[in-house]
Amino acid sequence: DRISLMHAGKVLASGTPQELVEKRGAASLEEAFIAYLQEAAGQSNEAEAPPVVHDTTHAPRQGFSLRRLFSYSRREALELRRDPVRSTLALMGTVILMLIMGYGISMDVENLRFAVLDRDQTVSSQAWTLNLSGSRYFIEQPPLTSYDELDRRMRAGDITVAIEIPPNFGRDIARGTPVELGVWIDGAMPSRAETVKGYVQAMHQSWLQDVASRQSTPASQSGLMNIETRYRYNPDVKSLPAIVPAVIPLLLMMIPSMLSALSVVREKELGSIINLYVTPTTRSEFLLGKQLPYIALGLLNFFLLCGLSVFVFGVPHKGSFLTLTLAALLYIIIATGMGLL
Question: Which InterPro entries did the record assign (predicted)?
Answer without folding.
Answer: ABC-2_transporter_component (IPR051449), ABC2_TM (IPR013525)
